[in-house]
C-alpha cells in the first residue's frame, strides 16, 4: 500500500457538497504491487456518502462500509479483488443497515434517538459524526435518511413541537398550561432552546429555515390560547418573552434550569402552569 498523506479534516456538510469525482479521487488511492486500494480517513467517509446516496450497490459499497469504521486503513479482504476490480459482495456480507425497508426504518429510528441525545447535550450544531456513531451506523446511512443537518433537526424537534400543539388543542386548555409544557421542553432539551433562538442559526446549513418553521408552529399554538388583553398580546411580545425565558435556562442540573425558567416568567409577570410534558 502506498504512503498517501492523510487528508485534511472536513466537516460533514463540506463532504456532502463535494463533487462525486472529487470525492472518489479524494477517497481512493491505488497501491502498487498487490494492486490493492487504500481508503483514508475523511476520503473513505466521503466516498461512502456519495455511493450510498446513489441508492445502488456498486462493487465498492460493501468494502467501503467495512473500511470506513477503521478510519480507512484496512486493506481489501482476500477474495474480493480480481483483475483490479473489487467484486460484488454477497447479501450475507452486506451490512444490516442496507438490508431492506425494515432495517432502514430501524436505522432512522436509531438516528433520531441518537440525535435527540446528542443535540440535548451539545445543542443543534453538535457533530453529525457523533450522532452516527451513537446510532451505530455509518455517515452514509445518516445522509440517506437526512440529507442535511436541518432535516435531522426537524425530525428530532418534531416531537417537542407536537406535544406543545397537542397541549394547546385540548378543550379548555389555557396559556399557562401550554407554557408549562413549553417550559418543560426548554428545561429538558438544549436543542429545543436552539429552536427558540432560530434567528441565531446564522449560516449553518439548513438549520435556520427548519427551526424557523417549527418556531412558527409553537407561536401559533401559544397565540391560539392567548386571552384578549394579555400583556404578551402585542405582535412580537409573545415569542420575545419565550426567547428571553429560554435564554435564561442555564445551570448544571435540571432543578436549577427549571428554577431559573420559572423565575424568568415571574419577572415578566406571566403565569405558568405545572412544568411537565404533555401526557395526553
UniProtKB/TrEMBL annotation:
A Gene Ontology molecular function term of the record: transcription cis-regulatory region binding
Gene3D superfamilies: Tetracycline Repressor, domain 2
Residue ranges of every copy of the HTH tetR-type domain listed in the record: 105-164
Region annotated Disordered, chain positions: 72-105
Pfam families: TetR_N
Source organism, top-level taxon: Bacteria
Residue range(s) of DNA binding per entry: 127-146
Keywords carried by this UniProt record: DNA-binding, Transcription, Transcription regulation
PANTHER family in alphabetical order: HTH-TYPE TRANSCRIPTIONAL REGULATOR BETI, HTH-TYPE TRANSCRIPTIONAL REGULATOR RUTR
Name of the protein in question: Regulatory protein TetR
Native source organism of the sequence: Streptomyces pratensis (strain ATCC 33331 / IAF-45CD)
Amino acid at each position: 500500500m502506498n504512503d498517501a498523506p492523510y487528508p485534511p479534516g472536513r466537516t460533514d456538510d463540506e463532504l456532502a457538497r463535494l463533487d462525486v469525482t472529487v470525492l472518489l479521487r479524494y477517497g481512493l488511492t491505488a497501491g502498487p504491487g498487490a494492486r490493492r486500494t487504500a481508503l483514508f480517513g475523511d476520503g473513505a467517509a466521503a466516498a461512502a456518502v456519495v455511493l450510498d446516496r446513489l441508492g445502488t450497490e456498486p462493487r465498492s459499497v460493501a468494502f467501503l462500509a467495512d473500511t470506513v469504521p477503521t478510519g480507512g486503513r484496512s486493506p481489501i479482504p482476500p477474495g474480493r479483488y480480481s483483475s483490479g476490480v473489487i467484486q460484488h459482495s454477497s447479501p450475507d456480507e452486506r451490512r444490516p443497515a442496507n438490508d431492506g425497508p425494515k432495517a432502514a426504518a430501524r436505522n432512522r429510528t436509531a438516528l433520531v434517538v441518537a440525535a435527540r441525545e446528542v443535540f440535548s447535550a451539545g445543542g443543534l450544531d453538535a457533530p453529525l459524526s457523533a450522532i452516527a456513531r451513537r446510532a451505530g451506523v455509518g455517515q452514509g446511512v445518516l445522509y440517506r435518511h437526512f440529507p442535511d443537518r436541518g432535516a435531522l433537526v426537524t425530525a428530532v424537534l418534531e416531537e417537542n413541537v407536537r406535544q406543545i400543539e397537542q397541549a394547546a388543542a385540548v378543550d379548555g386548555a389555557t396559556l399557562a398550561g401550554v407554557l408549562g409544557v413549553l417550559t418543560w421542553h426548554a428545561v429538558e432539551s438544549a436543542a429545543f432552546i436552539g429552536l427558540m433562538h432560530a434567528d441565531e442559526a446564522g449560516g449553518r446549513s439548513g438549520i435556520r429555515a427548519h427551526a424557523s418553521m417549527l418556531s412558527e408552529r409553537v407561536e401559533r399554538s401559544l397565540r391560539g390560547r392567548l386571552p384578549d388583553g394579555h400583556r404578551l398580546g402585542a405582535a412580537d411580545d409573545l415569542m420575545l418573552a419565550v426567547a428571553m425565558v429560554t435564554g435564561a435556562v442555564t445551570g448544571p442540573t435540571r432543578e436549577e434550569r427549571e428554577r431559573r425558567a420559572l423565575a424568568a416568567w415571574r419577572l415578566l409577570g406571566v403565569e405558568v402552569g405545572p412544568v411537565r410534558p404533555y401526557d395526553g
